[in-house]
């Protein structure tokens, strides 16, 4: 049976998903060893990089929907990785920070993942990896200019 539709371009979303899964194949075993889901790692990494944050910002930075983040944070709090509390200045907001245990885990996993990124940089070359990062940033900016502006805006200092 002949194809019904001819596409001129490759399936970019599909390629990006395959690339993500290829990279994650190296990271997931380490996450699972420590009992972390992909989403929990994204939250922990954001907190390790930026410190104490409001939940809305965590959701944006970790690419999670609010309801999903609520469940992820509940499990992480139960496991002693994060601490949640009401913002002293705005009681409507919840702020989250990594506990000492969560920060130690992030530090440990960062070493593992940075070794993988170093291997990737060696395999591709520094210029190609930098170009890949730049191209992905450009695609994000083209598709979502407002999001790219927020992402590139100066980051708040960790409290």
What does this structure look like?
The protein is mainly alpha-helical. It has one domain (29-152): Arc Repressor Mutant, subunit A (Orthogonal Bundle), CATH 1.10.10. It has helices at residues 12-33, 38-50, 55-62, 66-78, 100-124, 126-143, 145-152; strands at 53-54, 82-86, 94-98. The protein starts with 11 loop residues before the first helix and ends in a 7-residue tail after the last helix.
Quick recap of the structure?
The chain is mainly α and 159 residues long. It has seven helices and three strands. The chain has a single domain, classed as Winged helix-like DNA-binding domain superfamily/Winged helix DNA-binding domain (Arc Repressor Mutant, subunit A), CATH 1.10.10.
């Amino acid at each position: 049976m002949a194809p019904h539709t001819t596409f001129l371009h490759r399936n970019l979303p599909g390629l990006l998903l395959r690339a993500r899964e290829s990279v994650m194949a190296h990271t997931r075993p380490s996450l699972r060893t420590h009992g972390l889901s992909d989403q929990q790692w994204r939250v922990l990494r954001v907190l390790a990089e930026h410190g104490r944050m409001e939940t809305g910002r965590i959701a944006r930075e970790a690419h999670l929907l609010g309801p999903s983040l609520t469940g992820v944070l509940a499990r992480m709090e139960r496991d002693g990785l994060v601490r949640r509390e009401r913002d002293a200045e705005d009681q409507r907001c919840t702020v989250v920070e990594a506990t000492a245990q969560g920060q130690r885990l992030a530090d440990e996993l960062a070493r593992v993942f940075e070794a993988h990124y170093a291997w990737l940089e060696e395999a591709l070359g520094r210029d190609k990896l930098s170009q890949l990062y730049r191209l992905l940033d450009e695609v994000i900016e083209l598709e979502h200019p407002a999001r790219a502006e927020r992402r590139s805006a100066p980051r708040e200092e960790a409290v």
